[in-house]
Design a protein that fits this description.
Layout lengths: L2 H30 L6 H23 L1
Helix pairs in contact: 1-2
């Protein structure tokens, strides 16, 4: 493995790790706002849940 390939691999691993932290934080935010009412909050929570599901699948494949 050459230096550029190794650097790219390290960058990818760092990105995946950072994204996993973002996913965990977003899930915690969803749990913390579970009791919040309102149409806009509900719609935002649904979009976030869908985005998180997609992100988890992509992170698994990364």
């Amino acid at each position: 493995m050459n230096t550029q390939t190794a650097s790219t691999h390290v960058s990818k691993e760092k990105l995946v790790a950072d994204l996993k932290v973002v996913v965990a934080d977003a899930e915690e935010l969803l749990r913390a706002t579970a009791s919040q009412a309102g149409e806009k909050v509900s719609a935002a929570r649904e979009r976030i849940q869908a985005s998180l599901a997609t992100a988890k699948v992509k992170l698994t494949d990364a």
